[in-house]
Amino acid sequence: MSLPPPAVPRLNWAAYKQFFNGFFPGKAAYTEEKYPSLDGKVVIVTGGNTGVGYQTAKSLAGSTNAKVYIFSRSAEKTLAAIKKMELEVAKEYNRPKINVHFIQVDLSDLTTIKPAVEKFLAQEKRLDIVIHNAGVMTPPRGSETKQGYELQFGTNNVGTHLLQRLLDPIFIETSKTNKPGESRVVWVASSAQFNAPLGGVNWNDVNFKNTKFSDMGIYGQSKAVNVMQARAWPKYHPTATNVLSFSLCPGFLRTDLQRHLSSVSQWLMGWILHDQRNGAYTELFAALSPDLTKANQGEHMISFGKLGHTREDLTIQANVDKVWEFLDKETEPYL
């Protein structure tokens, strides 16, 4: 039986202003020359083998002394990306070697996540920053994860949630040795949050098996949940007082995320979108900027390093709690 589409709140002036910023963001103000040295720090970037994640990992490798781990699905593609990154860092940053490593994980298959974290824990005794960059956008209708979730919801939210839960012990323990705000968890969302169902999630049919809804609306649900995860994490980890948690839209960028769009849409996007390297400036603003403090906890960043706007219903604590508790329940069997 077909279910009616969920309600979507109307866009307000703040949303239109944010979309305008996406197309006309200006230049990033917080760039490599301002990054801290990150001596002895360990950073995870999921999906760091391609797109904005690649640019983020490369910027860290070229301009800081952090040890960077790329968590991604394909060993072949990621190892090739690291070799390419080393050549580019040598040329662009004048550094002959990079401290970048690979951990294999498939966020669309929850059974792969604990082994990946165990491999990381066998190599490291600290974790300072987590950038949840990996994601899927508008795959073919009906695409599912190994556990049967709609692919975007399962990958962008459920898989990411499980990964963070498994990393939390080392991440929180490390945060106790850092200054306030040095430990951060960054959830890469999108301005597609404005296309999400009212309350963030279509609770009548989370996986949209029997509900007609726009492709961007289904993607928007997953990005709204990322926004809510950023807001929920501090509440559910009250002892992690040195940690900052943020969500962000990296910008309106040309990336591999558009690979599922039509050729006409891809051609149009090529004219109006920005270079993906700018997205790294947004991600690293959220991950590193000293201008962000406890007063900004849970807030949303936009291109290319500014405070943004979160849709009001995504900030209602009851909605945030419902999402977090659902994700906790779904991931519990895989801890």
Task: Please explain how this structure is put together.
The chain has a single domain, classed as Rossmann fold. The mean pLDDT is 95. It has nine helices and eight strands. The longest helix has 25 residues, at 151-175. The protein is globular and about 60 Å long. Helix 4 packs parallel to helix 5 (151-175). The chain starts with 12 loop residues before the first helix and ends with a helix. It has 335 residues and is α/β, with parallel strands linked by helices. Strands 3-2-1-4-5-6-7-8 form an eight-stranded mixed beta sheet, sandwiched between helices. It has helices at 13-23, 51-63, 75-92, 113-123, 151-175, 215-236, 263-272, 277-288, 317-331, and strands spanning 42-46, 67-72, 100-104, 129-132, 183-188, 243-248, 300-302, 306-307.
Write the layout of secondary structure elements.
Elements: H1 13-23, E1 42-46, H2 51-63, E2 67-72, H3 75-92, E3 100-104, H4 113-123, E4 129-132, H5 151-175, E5 183-188, H6 215-236, E6 243-248, H7 263-272, H8 277-288, E7 300-302, E8 306-307, H9 317-331
Parallel strand pairs: 1-2, 1-4, 2-3, 4-5, 5-6, 6-7
Antiparallel strand pairs: 7-8
In brief, what are we looking at here?
The protein has 335 residues and is an alpha/beta fold. It has a single domain (13-334), classed as Rossmann fold (3-Layer(aba) Sandwich).
Number of strands: 8
What count of structural domains?
Answer: 1
Q: Work out the helicity level.
A: 40-55%
Oligomer: single chain
**Count of individual helical segments:** 9
Name of the CATH class: Alpha Beta
> What is the chain-wise order of helices and strands?
HEHEHEHEHEHEHHEEH
